[in-house]
């Protein structure tokens, strides 16, 4: 099989991922806005009756999302990125026929319920599953299959955020140990990402997903961005370790009682918060843009940071299909604003510094959790269109990553994959005589 045919398949596969990703995102947005509007406007509920109904809907959606995962495709839990990395390493199997429907419909339920989860992880997993379907149809060998898996994952990320360059770099930097690099596979990743992005843009437009207009920053403000990077390096290590702690303790609760108890509780809470405090719910991409423009008080920002941190941990620990990219970006935006507002009480900051810190915060926390600083820098630029502050973003991201490494931090997807292997090994029965 020649390179031309392989690359043609990558283009077609990328276009298919763009369609699937766009349908997934449109469904999430429609249901997320639809059910609260139905309760308020069609049923005319308000006050305690509205909160009770919201709690019931949130719990039902959370439980339904977990049921689909546990009953039909356990590997569809979480973001799916560790599963793809494991498959590219030859250690996991992508059972695409069951993952595709479960990740699609389970992800719609989970993300629409109000839980603090991102759409990018499911879209990456969907993309890789589509790629596996194409590869099986072609009956390709392991190396070509792994290369197409990487291309499918990149196409999924390109569809999630309309960020094809960051998607390509994600494969190069995040999956550097697993990606079977060759000109053939590398070009396939680029073509699939571009094809997916073109389809996505034709459906949703080509405006940056989280567009924020900011001015250039003076050289005198750069120490402020370095300081933010140092802070986010510490936060990133804490974020990753807390997430694993939550996963372990919620699993113990499930083993001791039922795996549906915790998701029910989380669903009840988010179903109320959707109406009472929407800032503490959902992925938070639009929230990040709103907060960067509004300039809320220090206390309010601190409360949002604490709530979103706690709800991210709780939501991901339920075991439903959902990612952590978007929650990390929203949390980072709020942290950047909180940091900048606090600094502003001590010294005067130039106009535009607060939204610039919010944007730089995204790159910083991404670098200190995912462990991919280059992807963080480029992703932030493509998401916001804020190319005027590229240098501050780079400084924030690299200093955050340096602190992350100095404190012994490890990329969260790497840790999650190792945890999956450890749990599976522990669940196997011991051989006779042991």
TrEMBL record:
It is a multi-pass membrane protein. It comes from the Bacteria. CDD domains: EriC (cd01031). Keywords: Chloride, Ion transport, Membrane, Transmembrane, Transmembrane helix, Transport. The chain crosses the membrane at residues 50-69, 100-118, 148-172, 184-204, 224-247, 259-278, 298-317, 324-348, 354-380, 387-407. The keyword Transmembrane applies. Its main location: membrane. InterPro entries: Cl-channel_core, ClC. The keyword Ion transport applies. It is found in: Membrane. This is H(+)/Cl(-) exchange transporter ClcA. The gene is clcA.
């Amino acid at each position: 099989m020649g390179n031309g045919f392989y690359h043609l398949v990558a283009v077609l596969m990328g276009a298919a991922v763009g369609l699937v990703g766009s349908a997934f995102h449109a469904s999430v947005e429609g249901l997320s806005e639809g059910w609260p509007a139905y309760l308020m406007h069609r049923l005319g509920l308000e006050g305690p009756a509205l909160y009770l109904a919201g709690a019931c809907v949130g719990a039902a959606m959370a439980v339904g999302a977990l049921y689909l995962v546990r009953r039909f495709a356990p590997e569809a839990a979480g973001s799916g990125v560790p599963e793809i990395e494991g498959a590219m390493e030859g250690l996991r199997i992508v059972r695409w026929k069951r993952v595709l429907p479960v990740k699609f419909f389970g992800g719609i339920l989970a993300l629409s319920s109000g839980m603090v989860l991102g759409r990018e992880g499911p879209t990456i997993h969907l993309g890789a599953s589509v790629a596996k379907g194409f590869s099986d149809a072609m009956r390709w060998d392991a190396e070509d299959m792994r290369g197409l898996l990487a291309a499918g994952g990149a196409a999924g990320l390109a569809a999630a955020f309309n960020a094809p360059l960051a998607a390509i770099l994600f494969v190069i930097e995040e999956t550097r140990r697993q990606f079977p690099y060759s000109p053939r596979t590398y070009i396939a990743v680029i073509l699939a990402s571009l094809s997916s992005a073109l389809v996505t843009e034709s459906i949703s437009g080509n405006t940056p997903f989280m567009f924020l207009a900011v001015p250039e920053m003076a050289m005198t403000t750069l120490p402020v961005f370095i300081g933010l990077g140092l802070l986010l390096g510490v936060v990133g290590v804490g974020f990753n370790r807390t997430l694993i702690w939550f996963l372990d303790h919620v699993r113990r609760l499930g083993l001791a009682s039922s795996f549906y108890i915790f998701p029910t509780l989380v669903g009840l809470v988010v179903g109320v918060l959707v109406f009472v405090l929407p800032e503490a719910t959902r992925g938070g991409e639009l929230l990040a843009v709103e907060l960067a423009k509004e300039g809320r008080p220090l206390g309010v920002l601190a409360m949002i940071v604490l709530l979103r941190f706690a709800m991210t941990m709780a939501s991901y620990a339920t075991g439903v299909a959902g990612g952590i990219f978007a929650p990390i970006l929203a949390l980072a935006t709020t942290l950047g604003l909180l940091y900048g507002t606090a600094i502003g009480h001590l010294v005067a900051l130039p106009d535009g510094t607060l939204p610039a810190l919010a944007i730089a915060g995204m790159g910083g926390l991404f670098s200190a959790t995912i462990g991919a600083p280059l992807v963080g820098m480029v992703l932030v630029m493509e998401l916001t269109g804020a190319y005027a502050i590229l240098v501050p973003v780079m400084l924030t991201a690299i200093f955050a990553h340096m602190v992350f490494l100095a404190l012994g931090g490890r990329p969260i997807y790497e840790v999650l994959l190792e945890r999956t292997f450890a749990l599976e090994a522990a669940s196997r029965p011991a051989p006779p005589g042991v």
